[in-house]
């Protein structure tokens, strides 16, 4: 049973989410402040955090950043709950590594579907035909592990999925729109800088080996073909 | 002109000489007597004089006309020069009088002249004439815009934010001078205040939308949950209906508070200013809130002297007191006291609402009357507050030329004091 941490300061809304997500078969817990959410997440180890961006104590984006930076929580997905007219928050959230968002007021059924979709994508990360490799990079879906020249690199769930997607399609240009759709599972109705920020972070984490991810100016990204390396 | 007699003048002189003789001959032939002869001679002389006079004046007039034309030309030039001078002076005065900064550059982009407003806007004492834009405002956008205006004749608008000497935002129109004039002009507008108001408005809209969205999300969410099966969940369904009802009420209150504020902002609610018995208004408000206080087992006390009067709008003042009493009752634990007192202090009348509630931390006090400012968001919502009550209070009190003060001590209580002009 997947665990979901609901971070919502409005008691009525927190109860609403708890009722519906429990009915959908999830185990839930609730935090009413950002600080409480961060400490609760460490103990509860949720698979997914449903994070309202308007919290009384901390900006939601800060909570998101702290979750994504915590090595113990890097495989935790985050779905933001934002308000219409806060596109900039949403964009910032996605750039900070949020997996998806819902807009308030939301349909509880749509919210449950989105939560399930994010968890499904995460589960798929562990599937695969076996170890994927390019240059000195090795990605093991089953163990959810990435190594560069034998040394493990800690990637967030999104970075992992982004790298896996590129490794599965070597030598083929992936447009930002395709990556947003396949990695994030969202339609590109908002800026695609999200992809760029994640590619940048992924390259940084991979070090020199990251050069294998090439920028195709004005189009997107591609993984250099193995034969080119040879 | 004397050296070069004109043909017309010669003709006139000739006539003048000959005519007396002709007239004398005519006169002698027609009139035989000496009187008639003398008369004819006199007439001829007169005629000769008139003709001579006429011929002289014609010449003089021609002379004068020429002189007058020259004078007129000179006068016109002088008038034109004076007019131009006045126009230049008027324009210079206008340029100095306007509160927008202005500079004119040559075709290289070097500042040729400017007004004082520009110097104030740039916050500098240095000489501006002879400088390049980049030296005066260290922003390449402006520099580029000036060069584009000078070289390509392109008009552009640049917005720059400056941190020093104080933070401000300038909007600058850069345009070529046009016509035969080379160079460019730039008009600087200080839009710092406009930007600030824009931010205030955006914050307000964001707050309003958040405040409206929360009850709507709860109402929609619970209704949807009930519709998709929870209706038969006999344990939870009644609670859900209760929440829908409560959140609908909250939405209603929020909308009426917002409308009230908007009416006050737009000045659509003119407040009267008459001598009002504060005791009467205070009693009405206190009577209205008594049941709520009793429900919470609070002691409600009224100490307003019967002769205390102030200049106020009775309806608005009652609304102010109801708001303050409502807050006091909300935040005072059971068994506490809410007291409404009045006194005259100099030419002012004070009305105070004192409670023995939780108290407010000092850091919150300066922002307490801001829209949607909440000391404790969760607590305020649990109490059913819209976050606009105190903001409406301040608005109304200001409208009555009064002020509202707050003093508080954590764990001891809070006192709101409305100060009005005494009547």
> Domains counted in the coordinates of chain A: how many?
2
Share of residues in strands of chain A: 15-25%
Q: Remind me, CATH topology of the largest domain in chain A?
A: Rossmann fold
State the strand order across the main sheet of chain A.
Answer: 2-1-3-4-5
The number of domains of chain B is 4
Overall shape of chain B: elongated
Structural class of chain B: alpha+beta
Estimate the global geometry of chain A from the Cα principal axes: globular
CATH level 1 class label of the largest domain in chain B: Alpha Beta
SSE topology string of chain B: HHEEHHHEEEHHEHEEHEEHHEE
CATH architecture assignment name of the largest domain in chain B:
2-Layer Sandwich
**Assigned CATH architecture of the largest domain in chain A:** 3-Layer(aba) Sandwich
Number of strands of chain A: 12
What's the average pLDDT of chain A? Answer: 85
Helix percentage range of chain A = 40-55%
CATH superfamily of the largest domain in chain B: Histidine kinase-like ATPase, C-terminal domain
For the largest beta sheet of chain B, what order do the strands appear in spatially? Answer: 2-1-5-4-3
Rg value of chain A: 18 Å
State the assembly state of the protein chains: heterodimer
Describe, in plain words, how this protein is organized in 3D:
The complex is a heterodimer of chains A (230) and B (423). Chain A is of the alpha/beta class and 230 residues long. Chain A has 2 domains: 3-125, Rossmann fold (3-Layer(aba) Sandwich); 132-229, Arc Repressor Mutant, subunit A (Orthogonal Bundle). Chain A contains 9 helices and 12 strands. Chain A has helices at 11-23, 34-44, 60-69, 87-95, 108-125, 157-168, 176-184, 193-206, 226-229, and strands spanning 3-7, 27-31, 48-52, 77-83, 100-104, 132-134, 137-140, 145-148, 151-152, 174-175, 213-216, 220-223. Chain A has a 5-stranded parallel beta sheet with strand order 2-1-3-4-5, with helices on both faces. In chain A, strands 6-7-8-9 form a 4-stranded antiparallel beta sheet, with helices on one face. Chain A has a 3-stranded antiparallel beta sheet with strand order 10-12-11. In chain A, strand 6 (132-134) and strand 7 form a beta hairpin. The model of chain A has no long low-confidence stretch (mean pLDDT 85). With 423 residues, chain B is of the alpha+beta class. Chain B folds into 4 domains: 7-92, no CATH class; 98-190, PAS domain (Beta-Lactamase, 2-Layer Sandwich); 207-265, Helix Hairpins, CATH 1.10.287; 274-421, Heat Shock Protein 90 (2-Layer Sandwich). In chain B, the strands form 3 sheets. In chain B, strands 2-1-5-4-3 form a 5-stranded antiparallel beta sheet, sandwiched between helices. The longest helix of chain B has 64 residues, at 34-97. The radius of gyration of chain B is 45 Å and the shape is elongated. The model of chain B is unreliable at 10-17 and 19-32 (pLDDT under 50). The interface between A and B is medium-sized, with 22 and 25 residues.
């Amino acid at each position: 049973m997947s665990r979901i941490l609901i971070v919502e300061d409005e008691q009525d809304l927190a109860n609403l989410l708890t009722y519906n997500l429990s009915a959908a078969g999830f185990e839930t817990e609730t935090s009413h402040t950002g600080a409480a959410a961060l400490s609760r997440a460490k103990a509860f180890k949720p698979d997914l955090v449903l994070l309202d961006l308007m919290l009384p104590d901390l900006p939601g984006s800060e909570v998101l950043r702290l979750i994504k930076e915590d090595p113990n929580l890097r495989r935790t997905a985050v779905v933001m709950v934002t308000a219409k007219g806060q596109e900039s928050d949403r964009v910032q959230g996605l750039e900070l590594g949020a997996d998806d968002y819902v807009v308030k007021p939301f349909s509880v059924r749509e919210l449950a579907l989105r939560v399930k979709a994010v968890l499904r994508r995460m589960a798929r990360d562990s599937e695969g035909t076996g170890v994927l490799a390019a240059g000195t990079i090795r990605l093991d879906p089953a163990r959810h592990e990435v190594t560069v020249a034998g040394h493990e690199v800690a990637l967030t769930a999104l970075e992992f999925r982004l790298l896996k997607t590129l490794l599965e399609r070597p030598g083929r240009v992936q447009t930002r729109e395709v990556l947003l759709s396949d990695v994030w599972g969202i339609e590109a109705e908002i800026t695609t800088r999200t992809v760029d920020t994640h590619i940048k972070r992924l390259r940084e984490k991979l070090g020199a080996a990251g050069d294998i991810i090439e920028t195709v100016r004005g189009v997107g990204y591609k993984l250099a073909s193995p034969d080119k390396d040879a | 002109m004397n050296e070069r007699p004109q043909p017309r003048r010669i003709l006139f002189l000739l006539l003048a000489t000959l005519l007396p003789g002709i007239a004398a001959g005519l006169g002698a032939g027609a009139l035989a007597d000496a009187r008639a002869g003398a008369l004819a001679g006199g007439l001829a002389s007169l005629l000769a004089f008139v003709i001579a006079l006429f011929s002289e004046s014609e010449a003089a007039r021609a002379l004068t006309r020429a002189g007058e034309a020259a004078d007129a030309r000179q006068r016109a030039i002088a008038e034109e020069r004076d007019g131009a001078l006045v126009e230049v002076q008027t324009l210079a005065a206008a340029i100095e009088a306007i509160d927008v900064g202005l500079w004119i550059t040559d075709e290289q982009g070097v500042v040729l002249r400017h007004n004082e407003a520009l110097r104030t806007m740039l916050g500098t004492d240095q000489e501006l004439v002879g400088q390049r834009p980049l030296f005066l405002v260290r922003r390449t956008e402006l520099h580029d815009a000036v060069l584009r205006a000078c070289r390509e004749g392109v008009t552009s608008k640049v917005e720059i934010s400056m941190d020093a000497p104080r933070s401000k935002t300038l909007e600058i129109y850069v345009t070529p001078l046009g016509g035969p004039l080379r160079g460019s002009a730039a008009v600087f507008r200080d839009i710092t205040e406009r930007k600030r108001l824009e931010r205030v408005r955006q914050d307000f809209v964001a707050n309003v939308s958040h405040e409206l969205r929360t009850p709507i999300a709860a109402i929609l969410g619970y209704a949807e949950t009930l519709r998709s099966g929870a209706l038969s969940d006999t344990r939870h369904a009644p609670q859900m209906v209760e929440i829908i009802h409560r959140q609908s009420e909250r939405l209603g209150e929020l909308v009426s508070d917002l409308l009230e504020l908007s009416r006050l902002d737009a000045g659509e609610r003119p407040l009267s200013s008459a001598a009002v018995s504060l005791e009467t208004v205070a009693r009405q408000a206190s009577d209205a809130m008594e049941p709520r206080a009793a429900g919470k087992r609070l002691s409600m006390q009224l100490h307003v002297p019967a002769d205390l009067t102030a200049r106020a709008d009775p309806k608005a003042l009652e609304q102010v007191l109801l708001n303050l009493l409502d807050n006091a009752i909300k935040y005072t634990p059971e068994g506490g006291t809410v007291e409404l007192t009045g006194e005259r202090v100099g030419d002012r009348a004070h009305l105070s609402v004192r409670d023995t509630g939780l108290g407010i931390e000092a850091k919150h006090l300066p922002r307490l009357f801001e829209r949607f400012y909440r000391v404790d968001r969760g607590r305020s919502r649990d109490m059913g507050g819209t976050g606009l009550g105190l903001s409406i209070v301040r608005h109304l009190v200001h409208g009555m030329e009064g002020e509202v003060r707050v003093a508080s001590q954590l764990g001891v209580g809070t006192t709101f004091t409305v100060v009005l002009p005494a009547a």
